[in-house]
Amino acid sequence: MENVSNNNSQKESLFYSLFFSSEEGTQNAIDLYESLSRKRVKNARKINIEQDSSNQLSNFFFYRFDDRLVCFTEQQAISSDLPVRIFMSLGRAYDQLTMNDPRTRYGTKLYKIPSPEFYVLYNGDSELTTIQLSDMFIESSDSLQLKAEVVNIHTGALKKSGLDKCKILYEYSTVIEKAKEMGAENAVLYCIGNDILADYLQKHKTDINSMLFYTIK
User: What is the pLDDT of residues 134-148, one digit of tens each?
Assistant: First the structure.
């Protein structure tokens, strides 16, 4: 599995660490994507984009899964500008994906790029199932579109949709709900004691409280 990365000092959320930057991140992301898309992944390539200086944490991350460029983001609320922020991040991802290949820049022969998919993992009360960039346009236009699937990751919603079968996602959601209910430190102790993401929490216990802070604040 091949990586493309840039150094980035942004503070990490638990979601970003668990599904991207940690040693287990790529396999966790594959499990997540296969559960969401019902597609099998043969090859995975991590694409590490530069984050905006205004972001307090890494909000968006990308993988190339076979011939698809997949964006994940975890949100506690669906802000009105989320589609355009996803769009801006997509540009950075394609830039990273193509920057070292001379065939992609200023050539006359059509160069194929992976098609994008977008998933917003959402831990809130909205009943949105999709968001799209065209809803933000002052005047309607067919020139550009970006549509992202919104996935409710409350544990109850995951059970209802069958996504609780994705063990890593269900355990992540349980940790977040427990942290909101009883605070980060108590949630970590509870989850380790109940074998919920226990190995990961033990391994990253020096950073886990700050990761949870940036996730649930």
Answer: 999 999 998 999 999
pTM: 0.89
pLDDT band of residue 125 (cuts 50, 70, 90) is confident
Buried/exposed code over 72-82 (b: 16+ C-beta within 10 A; e: otherwise): bbbbeebeeeb
DSSP assignment, residue 13? P
Q: Assess contact for 97 and 63: CB atoms under 8 A.
A: no
**pLDDT-derived band at 172, boundaries 50, 70, 90:** very high
Q: What amino acid is encoded at 138 in this protein? A: I
Residue 28: φ, ψ to 5°: -60, -40
- Give me the DSSP letters along 25-88: HHHHHHHHHHHHH----S-EEEE-PPPPTT-SB--EEEEEETTEEEEEEEESS--TTHHHHHHH
Give the residue extent of every domain in the chain.
2-155
Residue with the two structure tokens 């355990």: 171
Contact 1, 45 (CB under 8 A): yes
d(CA 57, CA 115): 26
| Beta bridge partners of residue 122, listed in sequence order | 75, 152
